[in-house]
Design brief:
The chain is mainly β. It has one domain. Helix content is about 10%, strand content about 40%. It is built from 1 helix and 8 strands. It has a 5-stranded antiparallel beta sheet with strand order 1-4-5-6-7, with no helix packed on it. It has a 3-stranded antiparallel beta sheet with strand order 3-2-8, with no helix packed on it. The longest helix has 8 residues. The protein starts with a strand and ends in a 5-residue tail after the last strand. Bound molecules: zinc ion. The site of zinc ion has 8 residues, from loops.
Length: about 90
């Protein structure tokens, strides 16, 4: 397992969502902390990526790659994500 900061997600989330969500403020469902996703702790393994809140350690987001180009993006610990309108 490799521990990275939230900035490591920038390219991956841009590929999946079409925008860099690491620059966005997010709110943790577990503790209510609101901060940039870039400040979260990213744990990368061969099985997938788990992103944890830097305040409480709760799971904010998961990314798991499967066969045939499929990816599952889970957001069990994000109660809000701030996005900019164009
Ligand atoms: Zn938290």
């Amino acid at each position: 397992m490799t521990l990275l900061d939230g900035n490591a997600l920038a390219g991956r989330l841009d590929d999946l969502l079409g925008w860099d969500a690491t620059a966005s403020p997010v709110r943790c469902t577990h503790c209510g902390l609101a901060d940039l996703l870039a400040t979260a702790a990213v744990y990368a393994t061969a099985m997938g990526t788990v992103v944890r809140c830097h305040g409480c350690g709760g799971v904010l987001l998961t990314v798991v790659d499967g066969a045939e180009g499929r990816t599952w993006l889970g957001m069990p610990g994000l109660s809000a994500v701030e996005m900019r309108r164009a």
